[in-house]
UniProtKB/TrEMBL annotation:
Recorded metabolic or biological pathway in which this protein acts: Amino-acid biosynthesis; L-arginine biosynthesis; N(2)-acetyl-L-ornithine from L-glutamate: step 3/4
Family classification: Belongs to the NAGSA dehydrogenase family. Type 1 subfamily.
Location of the active site: 149
Native source species: Amphritea japonica ATCC BAA-1530
Name the UniProt record assigns to this protein: N-acetyl-gamma-glutamyl-phosphate reductase
């Protein structure tokens, strides 16, 4: 059994890690942290986990965490970069669900995240954990940066087109909707029922923190800098990301369906749907899967890709476990084989 620790166990991605790891045959959760809920049993706070864990939340402590073989950080940005270096030095494999190690250009990271990066050496070694792109590097990673939720849905949707240079890389458009759990469990007015239900709005149109991350990934795939307009929206659902992606085809032809099917044929967690299908967020709810479909409306030169994930699963905790499985040489799908919840 691989001994696992989770820093930030009371948040939405932390409790999702616990839910998924409860069905993983190869790990044992030994440490779960929360500063505000110290001493509280996991199942007193999260009754869905009754019968699965005997643990109590403890305050984060590097000594206790370094007894683990893998430590997940399900914490706001700025936390992992302070604690991870010592853990890595002690041989622990660290998997960060936050944003500290995703962006390679640390000046750019500081501009978007409003703080100095305190761990540049480790950031240089960190591997970006999108298995559909980086599987080989992930196998040897000691410090793993899990992609953000919007970047996962957006990159997986655009990759086949970008890698094959089929669209104008300077004019990509990503119109992406998120459920409210994407904002985390912390109290904030925008997440209140009366503020977020029965309404929908765009936000951060001028610039969102996931913009540089998506551009970094797609630019690498394109072999040159891409131009992207990314507009996130808040929608009245708890879980889910739905991305509608637009590109201008250089040479409009048939074959996009086959191209997408071939690109993801060996990917256990990307489902290219039959031509003409429209993926729904509810079909991926609770499951570690990205459902994709591709269209060329009116046989014109615009390609439209639809990409749906659960922000807490393929967008966070599920992808983190997928990465852990790869890092430890386990079956990549262990603990992640269940279907989504419908309706
Ligand atoms: N929600 C989502 O859909 C997604 C989130 N992410 C990223 O994952 C990370 C976690 O997100 P989410 O679960 O939503 O966040 P939440 O706000 O729901 O939870 C944050 C957790 O971190 C702990 N925490 C907060 N500050 C500190 C600190 N300084 N030191 C140690 N622990 C701390 C909190 O517990 P306590 O304060 O009691 O210690 C809590 O358990 C974030 O970086 C987020 O951006 C990534 C993809 C998707
Ligand atoms: C709906 C909502 O508020 N979503 C969050 C996504 C946060 C997230 O996942 O951010 P990380 O990059 O830290 O992982 C947002 O727009 O900030």
């Amino acid at each position: 059994m691989i001994k696992v620790g989770i820093v930030g166990g009371t948040g939405y991605t932390g409790v999702e890690l616990l839910r998924l790891l409860a069905n993983h045959s190869g790990v044992s959760v030994e440490v779960i942290t929360s500063r505000s809920e110290e001493g509280v049993r996991i199942d007193d706070m999260y009754p869905n986990l009754r019968g699965h864990y005997d643990l109590q939340f403890t305050v984060p402590d590097v000594e206790a965490l370094s007894e683990c073989e893998a430590v997940f950080f399900a914490t706001p940005h700025g936390v992992a970069m302070k604690m991870a270096p010592e853990l890595v030095e002690r041989g622990v494999k660290v998997i960060d669900l936050g944003a500290d190690f995703r962006i390679k250009d640390l000046e750019l990271w500081s501009q978007w995240y409003g703080m100095e990066h305190t761990s540049p050496e480790l950031a240089a070694k960190a591997v970006y954990g999108l298995p559909e792109v980086n599987r080989e590097a992930i196998k040897g990673a000691q410090m793993l940066a899990c992609p953000g939720c919007y970047p996962t849905a957006t990159q997986l949707g655009f990759l086949p087109l970008i890698e094959n240079k089929l669209i104008d890389h300077r004019r990509l458009i990503a119109d992406v909707k998120s459920g409210v759990s994407g904002a985390g469990r912390g109290a904030n007015i925008g997440s209140l029922l009366c503020e977020s239900s029965e309404s929908m709005k765009a936000y951060a149109v001028a610039g969102h923190r996931h913009l540089p991350e998506i551009k970094q990934g797609l630019s690498e795939a394109a072999g040159r800098p891409v131009g992207l307009t990314f507009v996130p929206h808040l929608t009245p659902m708890i879980r889910g990301i739905h991305a509608t992606l637009y590109g201008k085809l250089k040479d409009p032809t048939d074959g996009l369906q086959e191209l997408f099917e071939a690109r993801y044929a060996d990917e256990p967690f990307v489902d290219v749907m039959p031509a003409g299908s429209h993926p729904e967020t509810r079909s991926v709810k609770g499951a570690n899967i990205c459902r994709i479909s591709v269209f060329r409306p009116q046989n014109d030169d615009t390609v439209v890709v639809l990409s749906a994930i659960d922000n807490l699963v393929k967008g966070a905790a599920g992808q983190a476990i997928q990465n852990m499985n790869i890092m430890f040489g386990l079956d990549e799908a262990e603990g992640l084989k269940h279907a989504g919840m419908m309706p």
